[in-house]
């Protein structure tokens, strides 16, 4: 006979050694950036030894973790509507669903969350995930919401267990936390704390484990990852180029990239790494936000538009086939039509393979939120104009790859029967009609046509490649 299902008032919630105890189901929902994707995987790693196995849906789960993003108002609204749906499920399960809110909304709005959503059991900030087991036990003991949003002095990376589960052919590895740049619009320095780099050997050890678990491409993550300066084994700080060079020595790891970078931290050595490091992909996400010097100043970005142009030129000189993606904000306080046209000019001159663009969203506690705001219809009209140009550029970039023969890293099956899917050197999603199972392998593909968001190609045989 099965042991009775544990209830929310059970005193020792983390004791899974009792005979007959059924494994617990954990569902993790991830919003926001790739650093949250990494953190979500690590939370599952932390809870696995306690008997939690991950499931794909929240229904019937014993625990749901919602790892949240606070970057724009809409991201925050999503959290509250998703929580409303979880509440209904929790009630249908007689209260037997522990709900944890983690990530940047947890950090920024911990107390508000506890008041607005009292059916939440746990609120945990990004620096405290290693404490999840004890926090879960405390939540089982306590009536009301348990909140941990401290910024401990020691680094969170020191406390995380080894990566235990495969993340996939493309794996994300956080090498830096926090941000010290304080751009006028941005909540990250408040939700993630001060910038801190993880020691180089710990990064390398984790990368090797990821490769042993099937990773072929690793993306190194940080909000300012190009400012990485982790302690090396000799006690001296290693910059990102050195770390990338050591990473390139790992057997079985085929591709490397890093994201997100700030234009002010593109060092000479890092630019040269794009020429010299054979595993570094010819693709760089380099957010510029605006093409207007006036607005860049107001944003506290500490560089002008020409600095960005110079960086792009130097990177293209180092690696001719490098492609760029970027982030843009339109409608920052003070942005005039002429400022916006400066952004359009920079976009037209640069040529992006991909870009993300947003209307400015005032965030509580950030300097720009207190300034007079632009009207919503002005912001929306500018966004549409910018996105039309960015779409045109993305289509042009994809169209220019038709006819090319290029390596593709296969990541899994395609959406339709008989298709396999992968990524080109420029991170374009590629689909190929091929019945063979090639996940984790790199194949040579001739690109034949483009779809709206992907490109299509045929896999060449060894003989065709040699011919
Ligand atoms: N560290 C990265 C950005 C992280 S946030 C960098 O410095 O570039 C990802 C993107 O969200 C930003 O690049 C910016 O374009 C956008 N963003 C951040 N705050 C925003 C806000 N308040 N309103 C609209 N977009 C915002
Ligand atoms: Fe935010 Fe600016 Fe830091 Fe990027 S660099 S995370 S935009 S404060
Ligand atoms: Fe969002 Fe936090 Fe990442 S605010 S973008 S989840 S660092």
How much helix, percentage-wise, in residues? 25-40%
Q: How many domains would you count in the coordinates? A: 3
Rounded mean pLDDT is: 92
Number of strands: 21
Q: DSSP helix count? A: 13
CATH architecture of the largest domain: Alpha-Beta Horseshoe
- Write down the overall geometry: globular
Name of the CATH class of the largest domain = Alpha Beta
Strand content bin? 15-25%
Uncertain residue segments? 1-20
Q: Structural class, from secondary structure content?
A: alpha/beta
- The CATH homologous superfamily of the largest domain is named tm_1862 like domain
**What small-molecule ligands were found?**
S-adenosyl-L-homocysteine, iron/sulfur cluster, FE3-S4 cluster
Biggest sheet features: 6 strands, parallel
Rg computed from alpha carbons, rounded to a whole number of angstroms = 23 Å
């Amino acid at each position: 006979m099965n042991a009775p299902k544990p209830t929310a008032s059970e005193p020792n919630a983390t004791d899974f050694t009792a005979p007959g105890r059924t494994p617990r189901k954990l569902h993790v929902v991830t919003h926001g950036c790739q650093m949250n994707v990494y953190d979500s995987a690590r939370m599952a790693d932390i809870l696995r030894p306690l008997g939690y196995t991950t499931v794909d849906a929240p229904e019937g789960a014993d625990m749901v973790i919602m790892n949240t993003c606070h970057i724009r108002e809409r991201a925050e609204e999503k959290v509250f509507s998703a929580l409303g749906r979880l509440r209904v499920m929790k009630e249908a399960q007689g209260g037997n669903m522990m709900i944890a809110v983690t990530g940047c909304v947890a950090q920024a709005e911990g107390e508000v969350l506890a008041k607005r959503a009292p059916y939440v059991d746990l609120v945990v900030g990004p620096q405290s995930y290693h404490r999840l087991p004890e926090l879960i036990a405390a939540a089982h003991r306590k009536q009301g919401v348990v909140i941990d949003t401290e910024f401990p002095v020691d680094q969170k990376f020191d406390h995380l267990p080894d990566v235990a589960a495969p993340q996939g052919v493309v794996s994300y590895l956080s090498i830096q936390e926090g941000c010290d740049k304080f751009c006028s619009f941005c909540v990250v320095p408040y939700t993630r704390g001060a910038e801190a780099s993880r020691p180089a050997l710990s990064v390398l050890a984790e990368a090797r484990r990821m490769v042993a678990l099937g990773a072929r491409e690793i993306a190194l993550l940080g909000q300012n990852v190009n400012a990485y300066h982790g302690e090396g084994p000799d006690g001296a700080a290693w910059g990102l180029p050195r770390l990338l060079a050591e990473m390139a020595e790992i057997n079985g790891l085929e591709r490397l990239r890093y994201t997100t970078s700030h234009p002010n931290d593109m060092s000479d050595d890092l630019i040269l790494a794009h020429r010299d490091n054979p595993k570094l992909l010819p693709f760089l996400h380099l957010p510029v936000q605006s093409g207007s010097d006036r607005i860049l100043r107001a944003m506290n970005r500490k560089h002008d538009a020409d600095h960005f142009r110079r960086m792009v030129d130097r990177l293209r000189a180092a690696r001719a086939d490098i492609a760029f993606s970027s982030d843009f904000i339109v409608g920052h306080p003070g942005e005039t039509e002429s400022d916006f046209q400066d952004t359009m000019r920079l976009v037209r001159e640069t040529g992006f393979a991909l870009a993300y663009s947003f209307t400015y969203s005032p965030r509580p506690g950030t300097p720009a939120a207190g300034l007079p705001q632009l009207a919503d219809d002005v912001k929306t009209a500018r966004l549409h104009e910018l996105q039309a140009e960015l779409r045109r550029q993305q289509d042009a970039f994809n169209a220019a790859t038709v006819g090319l023969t290029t390596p593709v890293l296969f990541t899994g099956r395609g959406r339709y029967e008989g298709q396999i899917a992968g990524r080109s050197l420029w991170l374009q999603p590629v689909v190929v009609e091929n019945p063979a199972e090639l996940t984790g392998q790199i194949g040579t593909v001739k690109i034949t046509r483009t779809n709206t968001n992907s490109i299509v190609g045929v896999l060449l045989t060894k003989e065709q490649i040699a011919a």
